[in-house]
Every structure is written in C-alpha cells, then in structure tokens.
Amino acid sequence: MRHRKKRHLRGGRDRRRHELRALVTALVLYEKIETTAARARLARAKAERLITRAKKLDLAARRAILRDLPRQATRKIFEVLAPRYQTRPGGYVRIAHAGHFKDGTKKVLLELIQ
C-alpha cells in the first residue's frame, strides 16, 4: 500500500522545497514554463492549491500564500489569476508533452489555462 508515500525530487527536503517554490513562482509570473514531467506534476498540484486558496480574496488567504511565494507572485495571483478563475472550479494548470531533453528526460510545457 502507498500510505504516507510522496513523490520525490532529487536532493534533500530543503532543496525540494526551494525548487518547488521556484517552479510555482515562475509559473505564476510567466504563465508558461518548460520542465521535466516529474517536476511539472508536483508544481501543478501546488499551483492549483494556491490559486484555489487565493479565490477567497481575504487576508488569511493572502498571508498563507505569502508564506509560499514572493510578493510579486502573490500580487499577481490575487490581482490577475484569482479574478480570472473565479467561476472555474479547478483545473487551472495544463501539462502538455513537448518532446525530450538531450539526456532523454521527458520535457513538458506547464501552462496556466486562459
């Protein structure tokens, strides 16, 4: 059984957290990034949770998101993304396959749905 099992990225806990924060920040700011499939799955889950939380548009949600993202990304989530997805129940992020990197790793395009 897979109870209490998580998806893993390379490195320790701090490196994983930093990498995930950087991916989600880039996704929020640029709305489209290329990365590996494993990283994209983790970043999509995190981004979906943050956008859903931001749709409440209250101070507690803003503070919770500020714990995970820098100010510029938090501002964009609340001023641009939350109003855009206010009527959408979920599924804000799309993963599209984009070939392979030179080392054979699957490359995907992670993008916010318009």
Give the biggest beta sheet.
3 strands, antiparallel
Roughly how much helix do the residues carry, as a percent range? 40-55%
Strand content: 15-25%
Strand adjacency order, main sheet? 1-3-2
The total of beta strands comes to 3
Rg measurement, Å: 15 Å
Spatial separation of the terminal alpha carbons:
38 Å
Tell me the CATH topology: 50s Ribosomal Protein L17, Chain: A
Q: Give the full name of the CATH homologous superfamily.
A: Ribosomal protein L17
CATH classification, class level: Alpha Beta
What's the pLDDT, averaged over the residues?
93
Q: What does this 3D model show about the protein?
A:
The chain has 114 residues and is of the alpha+beta class. The chain has helices at residues 13-30, 37-54, 59-68, 71-84, and strands spanning 32-36, 93-100, 106-112. Strand 2 (93-100) and strand 3 (106-112) form a beta hairpin. Helix 1 packs across helix 2 (37-54), helix 1 (13-30) packs across helix 4 and helix 2 (37-54) packs across helix 4. It is globular, with a radius of gyration of 15 Å. The termini are far apart.
Can you lay out the helices and strands and say which pair or pack?
Layout: H1 13-30, E1 32-36, H2 37-54, H3 59-68, H4 71-84, E2 93-100, E3 106-112
Antiparallel strand pairs: 1-3, 2-3
Helix pairs in contact: 1-2, 1-4, 2-4
Provide a compact summary of the structure.
This protein has helices at 13-30, 37-54, 59-68, 71-84, and strands at residues 32-36, 93-100, 106-112. With 114 residues, the chain is an alpha+beta fold.
